[in-house]
Amino acid sequence: MNAPLTLAAFAAMDVGVLKGIGPKRQKGLADLEITSLYDVLTTYPRRYIDRTNQASIADLSLGEDGMVMVEVENVTSRQTRNRKSMVFVDVSDGTGRMRITFFNQPWRTRQLHAGMTAIVFGRCEDYRGSRQMTNPVVDLVGDQTGRIVPVYPNSEKAGIGTAELSKAVGEVLRRSGQRGFAEPLPAALLGRHDLVGRSQALRAIHAPETMGQVADAKRRLIYDELFRIQVALVRRKMQLAATTVGVPHEPNGVLVDGFFAGLPFALTSAQQRTIAEVFADLAGAAPMHRLLQGDVGAGKTIVAVAAMLAAVQSGHQAALMAPTEVLAEQHHASVREMLDGLEVADAGTLAGTRPLGVGLLSNRTTAAGRRKIEAGLAEGRIDLLIGTHALIQDGVNFPSLGMVVIDEQHRFGVEQRAALRSKGAGEAVPDVLVMTATPIPRTAAMTVYGDLDVSVLDELPPGRTPIDTRWVRLPFEGAEGELDLTGVDPAAEPGMWQHIRAEVEAGRQVYVVTPLVEESAKLEASSAEETLVRLQADELNGLRLGLLHGRVPSADKETTMASFRRGEIDVLVATTVIEVGVDVPNATVMTILDADRFGIAQLHQLRGRVGRGSHASFCYLVAAASNPIAEQRLEAMVATTDGFELAEVDLELRGEGTIMGERQKGRSDLKLASLRRDRYWVEKAREDAIELLTADPELADHAILAEEIEALLADDETDFLLKS
Ligand code: ADP
Ligand code: MG
User: Fold this and answer.
1) Residue 720 — very low, low, confident or very high, per pLDDT cuts 50/70/90?
2) How many C-beta neighbours within 10 Å does residue 170 have?
């Protein structure tokens, strides 16, 4: 048994086999999600101490960054008048002495003790004639002596630090020394991208001799991570296409033509392109699995309706599922209006045609109404059914389901999507179009939705007025009750309410979104109610206010929405129930209270409720700068209305984890790669995966790769792929 070791083999071995890892350490490692030798091997250094750059205290230039290895002589601490902590550490290295000052890092007194050796990086300054560093980076290196020392993640809570990890990694590398690591990539790919071999990469990332080796190793390992995911996704996609029977459609015909001819506007070129992509899928034999990404207001509904009509004119039925009743009812109303007067062929009638049948099914539909719909579906009188989750309940059956559209797909679980798709009678799998207004960057989409084809509506219909977004900055109240007034203009908030009154005066309408209470719908509802009462009594006294939140009964919700649409309510005070899809072109102001609590995607969605008509529109974000991330989010919202640009900022601020979290896939496999930074490699990996699988669909000639994908992309993740 001298064959090189595969990652699958490492994944099958428990950390317990390592020397010095008893039950306690093992538990600590498990807290860090390190349970197998593969996890150890892929716990990569956070950074490196490059001792080739190390200076001595005497050599440090004032005002410049430098690194020195020092001995701790003395640690003291005190509190300032405003109760901030300061820790002073005196250090020396034989060439001189220096003082280190830490602000607001009281735990340094526990970390550093006299006699310890530490490496500090920071800027050396002169303070009253002696050398000093303020808040430097500190690494405890113990007795490490290499020229480049890897620094691993430290977890005080798990009781595992860089020393333990470095020891465990060292042992794994030593024990696999002779055999080396199996190479899953064909030589042609290594050559094409000038990548180092896997053995070399894994050694160099943990025990490099130069920083150049680290860079090469990272490049290789990043490619590995991205390539594995792409091979899994592309393979799944090819298998689906090969094994499922679709419903054939004829996209060109009278119904679709009649629909386009009746539209009161010209399609944008993005809509034309997207419709062409969808139609090409519909005409094909394999079922469509397409994601339509388009910013709020980009006109996704038109694309969906065109696709559904293509199915109907080919003799099938279509379903559109929306996440909320408000949205389903609105879709129903607007689709009915768009399709008014369209007829479908029906040999059973005298004229040979009948009006297109459009139905609505939600939780508000009465039992009698439901029976009518079920009968209408069974008898083929309903061509197009729009609704909420109610569509996937038992008893709702389509004799000939050809097309499924899912709006705001992120609001639905995989099971719900799969359930709707399986509502058809026969073996054939209907075409599926999922739509989202949460733009994610192209390369992230390639990974998150890698088994779907993606169309992008990246153009808004002409004539939209850009939304003027303003941040109304409130004072920030610290834990001690002290107020931070930085950047606060006391006139801004009263000015905003005045502006709102002026808009209402001019006949426009306004949304006020009340604070998000994630933990409790009940608290959220009462906060919305309180806001309504306060505004009614005070800032918006005399205006007609309406209230909408998750706990308002559905019937009242619809009544309120209808009055708002008719202009009988001036200001709609609401929670995020209005986040998706609500379309009232006369509304020109969106005010979001406690906007720092919302994520970028949500703020952008909410803002998209205005700017839908010809009047100038405004979005007010009312919030304190409660933390630096929130501040950057709010600033980004003010700076741009481009959803894709905001998605990039969001990805940057939130990190990759959350994007991947949307589909839970690749979560465990993206350790070094960043979908944002490594865009180039995402695309290359996808191209390479397609090329490899086209030549070898079963991975018969790439056994190591196949085994590694199987072992490393966890079961729940593959399940996920199967169901989507
Ligand atoms: P979303 O992509 O947010 O779902 P909708 O489909 O609701 O957007 O469209 C938003 C509004 O834009 C609707 O009132 C729709 O009628 C209108 N619209 C769609 N396409 C066009 C177009 N090509 N030109 C003008 N208006 C359009
Ligand atoms: Mg929409």
Assistant:
1) very low
2) 15
